[in-house]
Amino acid sequence: MYIILGIIMVIFAWMQLAYGRLQKHKNDARTQWTRIDALLQSRSQFILRLMELAESHDFEDRELLAEMYDLQGGYIDSTDRELISESAETVTPLLDRFLHQTKEHPALWENEEFMELVQELSEMEEEIQLQSSKYNQFIDLYNEHRQKPSLKYQIAILGAMPLRGIHLKSDELPLIDQPVESPEPH
């Protein structure tokens, strides 16, 4: 009887240890998300400011601006990481399209504030990439750990859902180590 009770206790301790590790990965991801969330809020403010400058310089593609305004520059004030990630990911190709189209407006690229904002946004994108990579590593550890046999029953009972990472990559922002130059007029 004591042997069976001892085996049950060892199995229970093993399952608790595995669940504790799962929670650690989840908490690490949550902590990392706090950094990303702050960066995404700042990023949206930079995007909105760039759009205001473009509007003041008679940027023609009003539909693109409206779509980016509707997305609030890529940030939704929410506690749901999935919604925030989705909004940031949705605005990224629009931002690329916007920056590509601004190259047709030399007056914008001669504007010192616009140039500074693009440079700061570029630096911020690099930091977001770095922080997102760390966040995604924690998410991967969490999701991999969920698959362990010691957790299958606990997950079935407690419902630990898989988490999704964040994937942002702007193709139009200049690299940090290269100075931002205004495009050649056509």
Can you describe this structure?
- The protein is 72% helix and 0% strand.
- By secondary structure, the chain is an all-alpha fold.
- Residues 175-180 have low confidence and may be disordered.
Overall residue-averaged pLDDT value:
82
Question: What radius of gyration results from the CA coordinates?
Answer: 23 Å
How much helix is in the residues? over 70%
| Structural class by sheet pairing and helices | mainly alpha
Q: Any idea what the shape is?
A: rod-shaped
Count every beta strand, where a strand is a DSSP E run of 2 or more residues: 0
- The N- to C-terminal Cα distance equals 87 Å
Low-confidence runs: 175-180
| Helical run tally | 6
SSE topology string: HHHHHH
Strand content: under 5%
Largest sheet: none
Which properties best describe this structure?
186 residues, mainly alpha
Summarize the topology.
Elements lengths: L1 H55 L5 H9 L10 H22 L3 H5 L1 H35 L5 H7 L28
Short overview:
The protein has 186 residues and is an all-alpha fold. 72% of the residues lie in helices and 0% in strands.
